[in-house]
Amino acid sequence: MDLTGSKNHIPNLEDSELTHRIIGCAMRVHTKLGCGFPEVIYQNSLGIELRKAGIVFDREFSMPIYYDTELVGTRRVDFLVEQRITVELKALAALEDVHLAQAKNYLEAYNLRVGLLINFGSKSLEFKRLINTKAPSQKHFGS
């Protein structure tokens, strides 16, 4: 799994236009609220911004997790955008490797290609763009 850095919008990346729009929505939320709120406040606010931007999403999208062929549980990603991009939010002073691992696991479990990990808890908005190289290009959930 590749990890594409934060802070820079890099053209020619898969779904770069949509991820750029999502990050823009997150920046508007962070600009208005700053850091220090619980994660749910940022989830609700980002949902409002995504709707205002005309971006289709499912909130707290639940999916089954299988081991071999047996159901072993379910997980929920904060947002599934346009059935193809996972968005996991945090409200922490700093992101750690465990948070990246969680976001990567969602991509692999959903068999999707592109995800975002966004942290509202630091003074400046942090985001990481993740690529699941094991998933087919332009993969949508359920297809």
Biggest sheet, in brief?
A: 6 strands, mixed
As a percent range, the share of strand residues is 25-35%
Structurally, the number of domains stands at 1
Q: Determine Rg (CA atoms, Å).
A: 14 Å
Q: Biggest sheet: strands side by side, in what order? A: 1-6-5-4-3-2
Summed up:
This protein is globular. Helix content is 32%, strand content 31%. The protein has 143 residues and is α+β, with helices and mostly antiparallel strands.
Describe the 3D structure:
This protein is of the alpha+beta class and 143 residues long. The protein has one domain (2-131). The protein is 32% helix and 31% strand. It is built from three helices and six strands. The chain has helices spanning 16-33, 39-52, 97-110, and strands at residues 2-4, 57-67, 70-81, 85-90, 114-119, 126-131. Strands 1-6-5-4-3-2 form a six-stranded mixed sheet, sandwiched between helices. A hairpin with a 2-residue loop joins strand 2 and strand 3. Helix 1 packs across helix 2 (39-52). The protein is globular, with a radius of gyration of 14 Å. The two termini are 20 Å apart.
